[in-house]
Design a protein that fits this description.
Oligomer: heterodimer
Strand order of the largest sheet of chain B: 2-1-8
Structural class of chain B: mainly alpha
Number of strands of chain B: 8
Low-confidence stretches of chain A: none
Helix content of chain B: 55-70%
Strand content of chain B: 5-15%
Helix content of chain A: over 70%
Largest sheet of chain B: 3 strands, antiparallel
Number of helices of chain B: 16
Order of helices and strands of chain A: HHHHHHHHHHHHH
Low-confidence stretches of chain B: none
């Protein structure tokens, strides 16, 4: 496999991502154009003269043809110029960058809990193969999978916030915490984010558990495992050096998509705990017809998803070199 | 010791018979209403058309289905192949189907019924209230009045001006004063329905409590089943049509069409679809049909992939090529040659998709973008209960329980279907 082939594959891969982004932008343009009402009508009032209204219209480029509007829309979207939010009266980029750090930290930690938790529980279940614990965990994961986050979230709020008063039920920090003491501030954040983290993790945990458990069982009976065992390789070594890396491969592909969707906002969890995340920002923008913000949020989410997918693919290629050929096409 | 095996069909029959026993008086009333309604069709055609309502038809249908299904189950009992084991989730599937079909017989309340908020608001489960019956305003006589009174007894309206929910009452010189949450009001005794000189007081039990508008949660959950199931079935059928059609086109014709459809499919798969759904619902209004259409359009991706993969492999099979060479049209190839082969994975996927749609519908309702406030939906009930979390846990717990149980049942059913078609995978 020569270097130019790999470069070509990466180029193809990048082109596909850009194409998908382009399709998304086009779909957004169509949706925004055919949605009832246009942005200039927000400024309509008895005091507004028709000449001024025309001026407002032309400031939104509504007097130009659809094709021209589309071209400038795509150009602005790809240069990252989303304009000014109608609601916040600030540049969209500024609004998004305010919530992005929180979203990324929050979803990364939830993802870590899901992934590591699923792995550990699956290992634990697998070591007690077909015993009570294994069955209990499998049944439990099926049950947990059927519990939507708005049910489990409110359940946890009721138990831990309303009844036991252990954790706050909303927000990310107490009003009036001293900003200087970083330790106390961190503790306060953790105190507020513990419940949301648990709720968000519980939605993905059973999926990872099931995947890992299933793959362990599959690889346990593969020929290479039997060969290694016949050659007297220690069971622990087979597991840590061969079965886990082989299982990881397909799980990471799923994890890439999953993490991307988490980055675009854990909508329900954010709504329940009123957290300032991407999900709530997007939905509020949609509900208030704040077009620049909608487009900004959607494209940010799209870029993040494509990046996480790319990262997942790179990790998979690191594990299994053969994938470089097949994955790119 | 031989274990008693109760089959799913026996369980269904048991449920139906229990309904017939407990709701015997209601069933008789529905039968009588049906007879007087039929009489209208003969004597007074205009009035029959004017009195037509889906609520009434619902009751008639429930009555007929109850009779027909019980008869079929009794007569064909021996012939129906009995499933082997008796599991909890089998029975929840039967219960969900039963609730879906016979909702009016199970509760016999209107899901929007609300009156005297101060008394009925936020009642805990199993609490009861006193109902004071007032004298009807109009005397009932003649054929059409008789029909109206019959209809009123069977088909419950969302408002009833002839009853009052009260805490307690006191009678003093031909006036009746009643108390509603500390407020005192009075009525002349002549306005109240009397039995042996005493006011007619009955109790109404709120089996699972009441919500912030004094509506019965049990009734709303029962009717909510219908919304979930209807939205689920319609949306799944829609995504089935789209997925199979597009998948077949992409797999069969290939080339540019395949590339375009696959890229669109990629876009839908990589993107958090919930935002598109919310965007469309927020821009173009949310209603029963728009929720179905949007959820249907957002669920075609996995079906597309499965169908396309299967059709691509079909393209090399001899019988498919010979069918093509014989000159069969695209439609015939899809219906006669491809569908029987791809049916198995499609059916399995459809069942799981059904679970996803039910979940999405309740999530959308929870966000306030569901089928609207005209219909009771589990997600919307949880949403309204969120504000009363510290006072009324039952507003969230019971609808949440219904959602979890339904999704568990659907997933389990999907697993059973998949095991039925691919027994080797589960050995």
């Amino acid at each position: 496999m020569n270097r130019s082939f790999i470069a070509l594959s990466f180029f193809k891969r990048g082109a596909t991502s850009v194409l998908i982004l382009f399709l998304t932008v086009s779909l957004l343009f169509v949706l925004v154009r055919i949605a009832p009402g246009d942005p200039s009508q927000k400024y309509l009032s008895p005091n507004l003269s028709p000449q001024l209204f025309e001026k407002v219209k032309s400031s939104f480029q509504l007097d130009k043809s659809i094709a021209e509007q589309y071209i400038s829309f795509v150009k602005n979207a790809f240069t990252g110029d989303f304009g000014v939010s109608y609601k916040y009266h600030r540049p969209v980029n500024e609004v998004i960058f305010e919530v992005l750090p929180f979203t990324i930290i929050f979803s990364l930690s939830a993802f870590a809990v899901q992934f590591v938790g699923g792995l550990v529980l699956a290992l634990w279940a697998f070591h007690n193969h077909k015993k009570f614990l294994d069955k209990f965990l499998s049944r439990g994961s099926i049950l947990l999978y059927a519990v939507p986050s708005f049910v489990s979230g409110l359940f946890f709020v009721y138990i831990f916030s309303v009844q036991l008063k252990l954790f706050p039920s909303s927000g990310i920090k107490t009003v009036g915490t001293l900003e200087e003491n970083i330790f106390l501030l961190g503790l306060d954040y953790l105190h507020h984010l513990f419940l949301p983290l648990v709720v968000l993790s519980l939605t993905g945990l059973p999926i990872y558990f099931k995947y890992f458990r299933q793959h362990f069982e599959e690889h346990q009976e593969k020929l290479y495992t039997i060969y290694l065992r016949a050659n007297g390789v220690a069971e622990n070594k087979i597991f840590s050096r061969h079965i886990i890396p082989n299982s990881l491969n397909s799980i990471i592909a799923y994890a890439g998509v999953d993490l991307g969707i988490l980055f675009s906002g854990a909508l329900i969890t954010e709504v329940i705990f009123s957290l300032p995340g991407m999900g709530r920002l997007t939905v509020n923008a949609i509900l208030e017809h704040d077009y620049p913000l909608i487009i900004g949020c959607t494209l940010t989410a799209g870029v993040l998803i494509i990046l996480t997918n790319l990262a997942a693919d790179l990790i998979r290629m690191k594990i299994d070199k053969r994938l470089i050929k097949g994955l790119i096409n | 010791m031989k274990r008693i095996r109760l089959s799913v069909f026996d369980f269904m029959l048991l449920l139906l018979l229990l309904t017939a026993i407990f709701r015997a008086s209601l069933l008789v009333k529905i039968g009588m209403l049906f007879i007087s309604y039929l009489a209208f069709w003969v004597t007074d055609f205009d009035k029959a058309i004017a009195q037509f309502s889906f609520g009434m038809i619902d009751y008639f249908c429930s009555l007929f289905m109850l009779v027909i299904i019980s008869l079929v189950l009794i007569l064909k009992r021996k012939k129906i192949k009995q499933p082997q084991s008796f599991s909890f989730l089998h029975n929840t599937a039967v219960v969900i189907l039963y609730v879906f079909l016979f909702a009016p017989l199970i509760t016999n309340n209107n899901y929007d019924f609300q009156k005297d908020l101060s008394v009925t608001q936020l009642l805990p489960p199993l609490s009861s209230t006193n109902v004071l019956h007032l004298k009807p305003h109009h005397a009932m006589a003649g054929q059409s009045e008789k029909f109206f009174s019959q209809k009123k007894e069977v088909v419950k309206a969302s408002f009833d001006e002839e009853i009052l929910f009260i805490d307690s009452f006191k009678i003093a010189d031909s006036t009746l004063s009643y108390f509603q949450n500390g407020m005192k009001n009075s009525l002349p005794l002549s306005a109240v329905e009397l039995i042996d000189g005493k006011p007619n007081i009955t109790t109404k039990i709120f089996f699972l409590g009441s919500d912030e508008l004094g509506r019965d949660i049990f009734t709303r959950i029962i009717y909510g089943t219908r919304i979930s199931m209807l939205v689920g079935v319609c949306a799944v059928v829609l995504s089935l049509l789209i997925g199979v059609l597009f998948g077949f086109i992409a797999g069969f014709y290939g080339g540019v069409i395949d590339i375009i459809l696959s890229r669109i499919n990629d876009m839908f798969l990589t993107f958090p679809i919930i935002f598109f759904v919310i965007l469309i619902l927020a821009f173009f209004g949310n209603s029963f049909t728009s929720v179905i259409v949007v959820l249907g359009f957002s669920g075609w991706m996995s079906l597309f992939r499965i169908v396309k993969g299967e059709v691509v492999s079909l393209n090399n099979k001899d019988y498919f090529i010979s069918a093509q060479q014989l000159g069969l049209s695209g439609t015939k190839l899809l219906l006669k040659e491809a569908l029987p082969v791809i049916a198995t994975p499609v059916i399995v996927n459809t069942v799981f998709q059904f679970g996803n749609v039910v979940l999405s519908e309740s999530a959308l309702s929870f966000l306030g973008l569901g089928v609207g406030s005209d219909y009771p939906s589990w997600g919307a009930m949880i949403n309204s209960g969120q504000a009363y979390l510290s006072q009324a846990w039952w507003m969230i717990f019971f609808p949440g329980f219904a959602i979890v149980l339904t999704i568990l049942t659907i997933n389990d059913f999907g697993k059973k279907v998949s095991r039925y078609f691919n027994p080797r995978l589960y050995e």
